[in-house]
Amino acid sequence: MRHQNRPFRLPRRADVVFHARTAILLCAVVVPTGCASDHATAVSPVTTTVSATPPPKPTSTPTVDPYAGLPLIDHTDWTEAIDGTRLLVYPTTAGRRTTTPGTDERAWQEVLGQAPDADTPGMRDQFICHWVWARLVEPDKPSWNLEPWRPAVGYQATVDARCNPGGPER
Q1: C-alpha to C-alpha distance for 140 and 134, rounded to whole angstroms
Q2: Helix H segments across the chain?
Q3: Which phi and psi angles does 23 have, rounded to 5°?
Q4: What is the pLDDT along the chain (170 residues), one digit of tens a residue?
Q5: Do residues 87 and 77 touch, judged by C-beta distance below 8 A?
Q6: What is the distance between the alpha carbons of residues 93 and 26, in angstroms, rounded to a whole number?
Q7: The whole model's pTM is what?
Q8: What does the alpha-carbon distance between residue 85 and residue 54 come to, in Å, rounded to a whole number?
Q9: Cβ–Cβ < 8 Å for 164, 150
Q10: Could you tell me how far CA 6 lies from the centroid of its own chain?
């Protein structure tokens, strides 16, 4: 409460600094002993070790492929559709579930082992698009359909076209 005859005065900077230092010192004394115990706790000094290499960062990507050695592609079938030839690619359970880096290329090599005629830039972009995106959007889709008649527009444009550059699938 302020006295009526005395004007209100702001604390001087020196007062603020003094009170801040006092609060910090009080915290340094109270905090190490803890609040849950009536007994004083011995405080050990903290040692910091500086390493030349940073610690490993946590990652959600597995470092070991749980599906190593298992096929990622079950089989492929060439078919004829209203708009032209189509390669149906049937992934295995491992092919649907793996998230290990590099498995996209391993799976593409399996496709080429079963269907060598699929080795075109547009087909590869369609496959990688399905590998990355179709597995997320529709993980249980029985087959991924790749069409050699679709234009080779590059990977990003293939993704922008929802893996079907040149028009929707019929």
Answers
A1: 9
A2: 13-33, 93-97, 103-114, 121-129, 135-137, 155-160
A3: -65, -40
A4: 555 555 555 555 555 445 555 555 444 444 444 434 344 444 444 444 444 555 555 556 557 889 999 999 999 999 999 989 999 999 999 999 999 999 999 999 999 999 999 999 899 999 999 999 999 999 999 999 999 999 999 999 999 999 999 987 77
A5: yes
A6: 61
A7: 0.63
A8: 52
A9: yes
A10: 64
Contact 61, 101 (CB under 8 A): yes
Structure tokens at 167: 């028009």
Residue with tokens 């028009």: 167
Which tokens is 47 given? 């040692």
Scan for tokens 């369609």, then name that residue: 126
C-alpha 98/C-alpha 135 separation (Å) is: 10
